[in-house]
Amino acid sequence: MKLIKLNAIDSTSSFLKKLAQESVLKNYTVVTTENQISGRGQQQNTWYSEASKNLTISIYVSFKNLKIYDQKYLNFAISIAIYQTLSTYEISNLSIKWPNDILSANKKLCGILVENITKGMEIKSSIIGIGLNVNQEKFPVNLSNATSIKNCTKKETDLTILLNSLIDKLKEKIEFLNTKKFNLLEDSYLSVLYKKNIPTMFKDSNNNLFMGIIRNISTEGKLQIELEDETIKDFGIKEVSFP
Question: For the whole model, what pTM was predicted?
Answer without folding.
Answer: 0.93
